[in-house]
Amino acid sequence: MVSEQIDPDLPVFGSVSAERMEVIKDPAVLVASQTGTATVHKETTSTFNGDPMALANLDHPRMQLVMIPLTDNNYLSWSRLIKIALGAKVKLEFIDGRCVMPEEDSADYDQWIRVDCMIRSWILNSISKEIVEAFLYASTARELWLELEERFGESNGPQIYRIQREISAISQGSQLVVKYFTKLKKLWDELVCMQPIPQCTCKNCTCGVAKNVSDLACSNRLMQFLMGLSDDFDHVRNQILMMEPLPSVNKAYSMILRVEKQ
Ligand SMILES: [Zn+2]
Q: What is this structure's pTM?
């Protein structure tokens, strides 16, 4: 029943080391699957049939949901990745309050507590050592989630403001285009960490909204890049703006570089 195989339900962000993904032999999981105590919410190896109260055979409390743990300054991107991971495991209901604790005499009570403890461990494992201590005392996953939100949820505001202000003020001046573009790109990367581009929840995005959102972000970047360029590039800037569809910012950058070299 217990194997060293990688949990097929655990979303992988980037390459996860084999060590991190190693499945420990969790006695609770073993007992439940051997004695059949988990009959109400049947344990499965790959699908949950949409039941948030079910755990997979390979779920265990040592699991980590994301590659990069929560620190003082990555809450927005971190919480997004946690939500995606919990969504994939049909466990979002436990942190957003939809799956509330049953009455103590309810048949579901023990299983609910078990799943909630599991989710709490997963989240705590995904918080850096320096700050995790403050969150050990939350009594449910939902309470833990709200505490994290309260502590870090709004602290990105000043950083987003600083980055946006830098982006709107940046201009090429007397710098080479490569230097100007590199600075701008760094600001864009920082901003994406603070304000990740929303992902569509439909599988592999067949509805097309993910592409539209990403196109819009690209078009904003193109405009920001063109706005800060020196007036020496007036002519090629106008050419780029007339293009239909608008080129990507990377394409525009290479066009500008070609003109600069002439
Ligand atoms: Zn979609």
A: 0.47
